[in-house]
Amino acid sequence: MLKDQFLLNPEITFLNHGSFGACPKPVFEDYQKWQMKLEQEPIQFITKTGVSFLDDSKQALAEYINCDKADLIYTTNPSTAMNTVIKSLDLKAGDEILTTDQEYGAMDRTWNYYCRKVGAKYIHQKITLPLTNKAEILREFWSGLSPKTKTIFISQITSPTALIFPVKEIIERAKELGLMTIIDGAHVPAHIPLDLKALDPDVYTGACHKWMLAPKGSSFLYVNKQIQDQIDPLIISWGYEAEFPSESRFQDYHQYQGTRDFSAFLTTPAALQFLKENDWENRKKECRNLLQHYYPIVAEELESHVICPVKDEFLGQICSIPIRTTRPLELKEALYAKYKIEIPVVPFSGDTYLRISFQAYNGAAEIETLINAIRSIKKETNLFF
Asked: Which partner for 205 in 81, 87, 198, 307 could form a disulfide, CB atoms 3.0-4.6 Å apart?
């Protein structure tokens, strides 16, 4: 375990890396270094030196996820990235966006907002749980296709149910159909392999501050060159009609927006170096093995079941278990207040899930702590039924 390398409170059993991530000490120190440089000479940093450092950081990220750095911009979070894209789409009344019934709530709200403005439809295609195989996911998803479908939107790893969806196959068919593909990969970078050139989506967003271990407020938006001119800036600032335009209007419009602290964006090289120095591929494998061992055990303790085959095809370092409770907020508070366990209890689409994240600072002892807490709550309260 690497718990001593993180700033997390050692008194808390932290099983919620998936929500906001956790930053290692060396990466956080790098973050503070950039903030100090900004404060020491803000004019030079914001207009000159910081811009150069940002370019270096973008290059490091581009190499890691295999794309051209000119096709990337940094954003504070995937929600900002998706708002930038969705607001730019030329949606018409009756157009349909095909998605699943397991998408992130903020994204559902974003799509609903923009669709209602023009009369478009956001189609939630049901994916039956438990999952059985990839072919069945694809069959169910594409059964929602209609002549009015214009855009495909899907998570590569779902937030509420923590499942890996077959986005490569979905992108390939969407291309055959002439449909735009927009992929929410918030949980993907440094969690499961990501190769954007191989995947070839039209739009992809991912968080650096989750599994890649950067400080909070560092994410990216990738847009394929062929459609970059269609994407308007979310905020109009100095990059629009720039006095000294770069070779990329996409970069000018979206990356430079005046006064803001972009120090978190600059930590990507340090975060990637931390992963390299700590043998992260093997660390991730250990976490997946731990997850696959304990997933059915915890599910049984909760008198529940796993929601997919327990293998790498469907699971990374995070899993969700359906639970029976009518008081999810009270249950979450009890786990934290009495047992010092930070873990999400997620009401979603009429069900409730306990979602467990396994990161390199977690070990078997912490999962046993959760199991013991579940036993105690079942015995002493009626929070479960």
From this structure: 81
